[in-house]
Amino acid sequence: MTDALTALTRAARDAPQRTRWFVPGRIEVLGKHTDYAGGRSLLAAVDAGHTVTATARADRLLRVRSEEAGETVDLDLDHLEEPTAAADGHWGGYVRTVAARLAANFRGRLRGADLTVTTTLPLAAGMSSSSALVVGLALALIDLSGLAAEPAFATAITTPEQLGEYLGTVENGQSFGELSGHRGVGTFGGSEDHTAMLCGVPGALVQYSFCPVRHERTVALGDELALVIAVSGVEAAKTGAAREDYNRVSLAVGEILRRWQEDTGRHDASLAAAIGSGPASVQRLRELAADDDYLAGRLEQFLAESERIVPAAALALEEGDLAEFGRLADDSQAGAERGLRNQVPETITLQRLARELGAHAASAFGAGFGGSVWALVDAVEAEQFAGRWLEAYRARHPERAGTASVAITRPGAAAHRVTD
Question: For the chain, where do the domains classified as CATH 3.30.230.10 start and end?
Answer without folding.
Answer: 4-220+413-417
